[in-house]
Specification:
This protein is an all-alpha fold. The chain has one domain (6-133). It has helices spanning 6-18, 21-29, 33-42, 46-54, 58-67, 71-79, 83-92, 96-104, 108-124, 128-133. It is globular and about 35 Å long. The two termini are 28 Å apart.
Length: 140
């Protein structure tokens, strides 16, 4: 995966936090369209997923699938040299081992975004039963 400056991840965090259109526009205006398309694909926009696949960002499309629980996508990420994205997908679910791996290999931007996505998902699934099931989440 290409290396992105921290500002890219900060803008993606804003997208996760409040569906910030200005943050997505910043990504496009600063030649990070693939990250804007990645966010839209994560949000379920099929044409963005297709754009990633057709424009050389298959690893970002696979990340979206891995975040949705597709183990084959995770295997693809690992075998194609994108282990950090496989760890990111797991970190979004709050898996401590993945978070620790990202920390160990200094993927600060991915950690920031994974944390925000984990918090967002927690808010969506708020309730006693879901809280009970997620005691191991390192982002709490």
């Amino acid at each position: 995966m290409k290396s992105y400056p921290i500002e890219v991840y900060e803008n993606l965090v804003l997208c996760a936090r409040n569906n910030d259109d200005a943050a997505q526009q910043w990504l496009v205006d600063n030649d990070y369209r693939e990250m804007s398309e990645f966010w839209d694909a994560f949000e379920g926009v099929e044409k963005s997923f297709k754009w990633l696949m057709e424009n050389g960002y298959r690893h970002l499309a696979a990340t979206v699938d891995a975040m949705a629980g597709d183990d084959k996508a995770k295997v693809f990420l690992i075998t194609s040299g994108n282990r950090e994205l496989a760890a990111f997908a797991d970190a979004c679910e709050g898996k401590a081992q993945a978070v620790n791996w990202l920390i160990q290999f200094h993927h600060k931007g991915l950690i920031l975004l994974a944390r925000e996505i984990a918090i967002r998902e927690k808010k969506k699934n708020k309730g006693f039963f879901n809280t009970f099931l997620n005691f191991g989440n390192p982002f709490r």
